[in-house]
Amino acid sequence: MAATVREKVVSDLLKFETDQRYNRKVVTFINETGDAAAFEIGQMLELSSANYAPIVSGQTDPVALLLENLPEMADDATASATVLVRGPAVVDKAQIISPDSGATLLSQLAALEVLGIVAKDEPTLTTTQTT
Question: Do 47 and 83 contact (CB within 8 A), yes or no?
Fold first, then answer.
């Protein structure tokens, strides 16, 4: 039997936010990766001219997180998308998509905190059997 893969949903990433009308924004998203690509909830975004684009490399600080899955888009194609631009909000750190790691990723997470978006490790729940 083949395993069923569930598409990522907003609640996988976003654990707490105050008012959606304040924290979220519908923007023009542009694919500037150089290739056709699909994008998932949690993608770190940068501001590119007047559009929001995925961070592809380097030490770019994010200005938003993508809050919807976007189907495959050609390079330089645009689409309307909902993004998280400010907090207060808490997101699951494991669900954030960034091409960077290590110190660069920590710097990007700090930039999100400046926006009021705090990335935390989602706690794992364990059960303890008592006799």
Answer: no
Kind and range of the H or E element at 21?
A: helix 20-23
Residue 127 structure tokens: 């059960």
CA 119/CA 42 separation, integer angstroms: 11
Average pLDDT on 111-116 reads 96
Residue-wise pLDDT for 75-109, tens only, equals 999 999 999 999 999 999 999 999 888 888 999 99
* Alpha carbons 87 and 124: distance in angstroms, whole number: 24
Q: How many angstroms separate the CA atoms of 34 and 74, rounded?
A: 9
Type of residue at 28: T
Q: Domains in the chain, start-ordered, CATH in brackets?
A: 10-120 (2.40.300.10)
Rounded distance between C-alpha atoms, residue 92 and residue 119, angstroms: 6
Distances (CA, A) of 126 to 32, 53, 59: 42, 38, 37
